[in-house]
Design goal:
The protein has helices spanning 13-23, 25-31, 34-39, 49-66, 93-102, 145-162, 185-199, 216-230; strands at 4-12, 77-81, 87-91, 107-114, 117-125. It has 231 residues and is α+β, with helices and mostly antiparallel strands. The strands form two sheets. A three-stranded antiparallel beta sheet has the order 1-5-4.
Length: 231
Amino acid sequence: MSPIRIGADLVSVDQVEAAIATFGDAYTRRVYTEREIENCRGARDGPAPERLAARFAAKEAAIKVLRPTSGVALTDIEVTIGSDGAPDLALSGTAATRGEELDLGECSLSLTHDGAYAAAVFVALAGDAPAVTPLPEPDPPKAQESKLTERTDAIRNVLAKHGRLSVPVTELSDDANLYGAGLTSHATVNVMLALENEFDTEFPVALLRRSTFESIENLDAALEDVLGAEV
């Protein structure tokens, strides 16, 4: 019998709306496909935030099923709507590659939004054969000490403004687990976009993974890697 994998996620509609207000097209471009944005248009100008929130939840639910060991672009996971009005997921790029490794079979997606929150549940059958899992990418190299303080101060400021942490950033060490401090999957997108604005750069897909945002130390090392590659 093929193993069943289940992923679920809950997203605040207000936080999606705030991300759109803060980052505009930079947010929607990095998270949603053009077809998703078009499908989310309602009576108001622009896409309805509650529909976008449901789609973000679906992408995160899919990531929990895929359990990728390398970076995955959120736009490689697309919510589509069938002729019967039922939602489905279309995988491309790195997400599709991971799905093939797991030999994903029949899948089912459910979306809902009510008031302040949107949620999604994704269920999929995986293949009987052991998955061919790529080796984890090595952590980015440690940042040079001379630039550590300046960059970590900027990271801390971004986390204080966009991380929505339950623990004050001033109380966190550089190696403290940010997810344990309340960092959510949606907040990581805001943190990423704010850091890209701060350092005039863009995180590559290879770094769009959970471990990159796990600590201030990891974020600093990732920025060192990205900025060094641009020189």
